[in-house]
C-alpha cells in the first residue's frame, strides 16, 4: 500500500500523530509520502520507505495572501500521479481535506481518482472550523472524504453537533509508542529541582486554548504549600502572559523554568511529578498521554476528550475548566502524599499502555484497507 499523508509540520498534536503514524507504517513496509510545507518535526527521512514532498509557494507581489492551498492541491495531484498512491490521509480538515478534494477533482478530470481519509483532530472542528469564513468549506470537504475519523468520542459528538455530516465517523484514538519512553538518564532531576522539591510540568504550543494563566495560578497556589518547581515546554502566543505573571509575582522567578522547544521531551517528562493540562478545549490530549507514558500523573480540566484519557482518582484528577482552586487542591493533595503519587505514577503508565501503538496501528491499517476496498 502506498499512502500519502498531508499534515502540518509543526509541533501541534495533529502533525505529531501524522508523523508517528507514517513512520510506523513505513517500519511495517508501507511506502509513505508526506506532503507538507516543511519537514515534519519528528520525521525520520532516512527510512527508505519514507518520502517527503515540500509544498513550495511561489510568492508574487500582486498577492496580498500567497495561495498555499493551490500549491498544496497541485503537489497532492502530482505526487498521486507520479508515485501511484493508493490512498490519501488528510490530518486536520483545514486546509488538507479541502486541498485533497481539489486534487481528486483534477485526477477525476483525467479519469483517475484516489480514496481520501480525513482525520479530525480538534480545533479544526471545535474552534477554527466553526468560523463563518471556513465553516461551509470545512463541512463540504469532510463530507467529500471517503472515510472520516476522529481522535475521540467527544470530538465525534462535537463534529455531529456543529456540522451536518452525512457519513459515519470512526473513532481512532491518539496513540503512543511506549518503547520510546524507556528509562533514560540523559538528564537529571537535580538539573531542575532540589531534592526536596516536586516538579510540575506543562507542555503545549502556548495558545489561549491551553489556559496558561491557569497553569501559572495553579503553580502559585501549590508552591505556597509544597516546595516545587514548574517547567514549561513549548513556544507560542501566550509567552507574554508568563513574563507578565512573573512581573507581578517576582518571588516565583527562580521557580519557573521556560525551556522552549526541546528534543528530549520524554526524558524531562520522566523527571516530573505532575503534568498540568487545564485546557479550555482538548479533543483528546496527546500531551497528557505522553506524560502518562513517562509515568507522570495528570491534573487537568474535564474539557472535550480529556476524560477519555485521564481517569479521575486513578491516573490523576480532573476539574471543571477554569476551576483553578480545585486543580490546585488536587495537586497539593497528590504532591503531599508520596504513597499516592507513587501509585498514580504506576496507574498513569498502565493507562498509557492501553493506548499503545501496537493496539492502534492495526486499526488504522484495517481502516485504509476497508476504504480502498469500498472505493
Ligand atoms: O492543540 C494542539 O496543541 C494542536 C492540535 C492540532 O490539531 O495540531 O491538537 C489537537 O490534536 C491532537 C492530536 O490529535 C489532540 O491530542 C489535541 O487534544 C488537539 N487539541 C485540541 O483539541 C485543542
TrEMBL record:
Please indicate which superkingdom the organism of origin belongs to.
Bacteria
Q: Which GO terms describe its biological process?
A: bacillithiol biosynthetic process
Name listed for the protein in its UniProt record: N-acetyl-alpha-D-glucosaminyl L-malate synthase BshA
GO molecular function, a single term? glycosyltransferase activity
Question: Whose protein is this, by species?
Answer: Epilithonimonas bovis DSM 19482
Chain ranges of the Glycosyl transferase family domain: 191-351
Fetch the InterPro entries from UniProt.
Glyco_trans_1, Glyco_trans_4-like_N, Glycosyltransferase_grp1, Thiol_BshA
What the entry lists under Gene3D superfamilies is as follows: Glycogen Phosphorylase B (3.40.50.2000)
Question: What are the residue boundaries of the Glycosyltransferase subfamily 4-like N-terminal domain, all occurrences included?
Answer: 11-177
What Pfam families does the record tag this protein with? Glyco_transf_4 (PF13439), Glycos_transf_1 (PF00534)
Amino acid at each position: 500500500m502506498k499512502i500519502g499523508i498531508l499534515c502540518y509540520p509543526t509541533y501541534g498534536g495533529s502533525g505529531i500523530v501524522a508523523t508517528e503514524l507514517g513512520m510506523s507504517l513505513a517500519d511495517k513496509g508501507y511506502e509513505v509520502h508526506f506532503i507538507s510545507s516543511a519537514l515534519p518535526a519528528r520525521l525520520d527521512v532516512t527510512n527508505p520507505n519514507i518520502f517527503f514532498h515540500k509544498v513550495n509557494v511561489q510568492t508574487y507581489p500582486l498577492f496580498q495572501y500567497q495561495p498555499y492551498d493551490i500549491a498544496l492541491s497541485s503537489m497532492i495531484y502530482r505526487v498521486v500521479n507520479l508515485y501511484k498512491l493508493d490512498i490519501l490521509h488528510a490530518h486536520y480538515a483545514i486546509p488538507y481535506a479541502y486541498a485533497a478534494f481539489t486534487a481528486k477533482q483534477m485526477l477525476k478530470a483525467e479519469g483517475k481518482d484516489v480514496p481520501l481519509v480525513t482525520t479530525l483532530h480538534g480545533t479544526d472542528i471545535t474552534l477554527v472550523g466553526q468560523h463563518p469564513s471556513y465553516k461551509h468549506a470545512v463541512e463540504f470537504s469532510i463530507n467529500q472524504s471517503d472515510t472520516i475519523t476522529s481522535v475521540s468520542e467527544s470530538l465525534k459528538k462535537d463534529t455531529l453537533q456543529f456540522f451536518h455530516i452525512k457519513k459515519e465517523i470512526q473513532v481512532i484514538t491518539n496513540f503512543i509508542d511506549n518503547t520510546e519512553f524507556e528509562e533514560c538518564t540523559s538528564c537529571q532531576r537535580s538539573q531542575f529541582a532540589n531534592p526536596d522539591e516536586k516538579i510540575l510540568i506543562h507542555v503545549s504550543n502556548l495558545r489561549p486554548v491551553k489556559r496558561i494563566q491557569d497553569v501559572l495560578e495553579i503553580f502559585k497556589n501549590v508552591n505556597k504549600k509544597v516546595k516545587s518547581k514548574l517547567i514549561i515546554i513549548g513556544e507560542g502566543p501566550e509567552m507574554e502572559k508568563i513574563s507578565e505573571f512573573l512581573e507581578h509575582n517576582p518571588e516565583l522567578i527562580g521557580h519557573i523554568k521556560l525551556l522552549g522547544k526541546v528534543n528530549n521531551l520524554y526524558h524531562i517528562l520522566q523527571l516530573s511529578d505532575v503534568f498540568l493540562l487545564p485546557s479550555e478545549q482538548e479533543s483528546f490530549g496527546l500531551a497528557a498521554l505522553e506524560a502518562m507514558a513517562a509515568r507522570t500523573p495528570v491534573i487537568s480540566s474535564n474539557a472535550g476528550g480529556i476524560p477519555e484519557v485521564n481517569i479521575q482518582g486513578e491516573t490523576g484528577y480532573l476539574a471543571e475548566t477554569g476551576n483553578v482552586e480545585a486543580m490546585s487542591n488536587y495537586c497539593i493533595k497528590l504532591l503531599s502524599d508520596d504513597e499516592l503519587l507513587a501509585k498514580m505514577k504506576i496507574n498513569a503508565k498502565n493507562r498509557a499502555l492501553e493506548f499503545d501503538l501496537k493496539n492502534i496501528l492495526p486499526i488504522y491499517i484495517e481502516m485504509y484497507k476497508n476504504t480502498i476496498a469500498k472505493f
